[in-house]
Amino acid sequence: MDTVNQPPATAQPPEEPLFDARGLVELDARVPRVSEIDGDRATFDARSLTTRRINLELRWLLYEQGVRDVTVLNPGAKHSLGTGILTRCRLRFEGSLGYFALGMIDGPEVHIAGRVGWSACENMMSGVCVIEGNAGSLTGAAIRGGDLVVKGRVGARTGIDQKGGTIISLGDAGSMTGFMMQRGRQIICGDVGPGLGDSMYDGTLYVAGKVKSLGIDCVEGEWTDADTELINRKFRIYDLGSPPQFTKFVCGKKLYNYDQLEPSERKLVL
Amino acid sequence: MCGIAGIIYKNGNGAHRIGRDMTSMLQSMKHRGPDSTGYALYHAPTSELTVRINLAESTAPRDLDFADDVRRRRREVEGRLRGAGATIKEMEDVNEYTFSATVAYHGELKRLADYVESVPHTEVLSLGHALDIVKDLGDAKTVAGSYGLDAYFGSHGIGHVRMATESDVDIANAHPYWAYPFSDVAVVHNGQLTNYHQWRRRLEANGHRFASMCDSEIIAVYLADRMANGDSLEDAMHHSLEDLDGVFTYICVSEDALGMAKDELAAKPLVLYEGDDMVALASEEMAIRAVIDREIETYDPYESTVMVWTR
Question: What is the per-residue pLDDT for A15?
């Protein structure tokens, strides 16, 4: 056997995935170990990998190989990539992602050179995610912390149930932006659709463009120096140029029948 | 859940491998609906009409009488096509229970379709100068294989992968729906319509027939009804946003156009890519990437959006 022309072990193509009889569920996924690792940096091509194998590869690199900086090539708009990463690291996706990208992350600094589908960064706890393209609906749903920056436009219900953190969109936003948000901030540089801040409990929405209509119990808020400082700081950190003029929207607290305390805080008070 | 997809080439000379493109798009969304797959494909328009007729459900038991029943229905259908005044130019057995006929006919389409469909267990799947509707159980590869769609050349098409929620898994309840009795118009839909029964009663009173119990069929018949009363396809779509309740994103096609409409809640997804020479849209970007294998700029249309492109 000619061993000279054998490709290195890391470059071997992954085995065919074993799906269930309907061809829908991947039964026995193994870590593909296809990355090129260089110190604490790694790169791998996701073109021929399934969602599950891409995520297994990411976890293997971050949790077992001590890698802190991963570049994923050709993600191909696949769904659920990079979910549940709970460690500080840098991730870079060289292309668009599908639905449920980077859900439940806690700590990573992510850069996506493309667009994302619905529900990107759902329930993000901390970290940073910068998306170069557009984002679908439910972007940043229920996030609790961290910064989510979308350089294109976002779909409907951005930051639904938001409980913290900051969502920035340089483009327009769709209907029901900030629906039922409870804490945190959204900075929308373009226009927003109908029902802005509908049924919000708390938090702040900044909009630079036109607002098609306000949702129930969302009212214009009083601008303070702290608002100016926040906007300037975020634009400076993410190198977004000089900020436009924003209008601030907050909860009118007419529907407001709840206290603002987290369960742990309530224990301290009582 | 269901998945919908559409593709239209702007230089619509009918020379694009639209069947293969749609199969790639639909197969990549198999996880959104593995029950059935359907296509509405458009070849270069001809002066004759193409009628595609289903003579039995694909799930019908293959007992001793099956082949005889299909043969007998087919003979009756041929007789009725001639009886309605159509001249049969060409006939093709697509598979054991579907056949396609090319006919010269200048009368009212409703009369022709109704007369043919009065043969029991028979359904006119599509009727038009450019339209072919193909739908059956299974994923896109299975359906495309058994109907030979890889070799289908045309200018535009739509497709659907179905996860049945409200009606049976069979051909009658699969998408796309032909906008009976309006030639060359078809619809695929993702969502649920909550005022289905109200509209069904209203449209039945106007003389329209329904081939299934699927709520999506309303959209096709609704659009046909509005167009029969003088609306353009685009106007009819705008009206549908007001008249239909529920959550929906649908794609509809006519002989020379493809359009999308999204309800005011924007509850069902659609990703859109507009290139120089083609427009592709689908429930997921993955489906578009199945035909355009490179990074592309896409976006989600907002609520209450209607967009139409022509070939």
Answer: 58
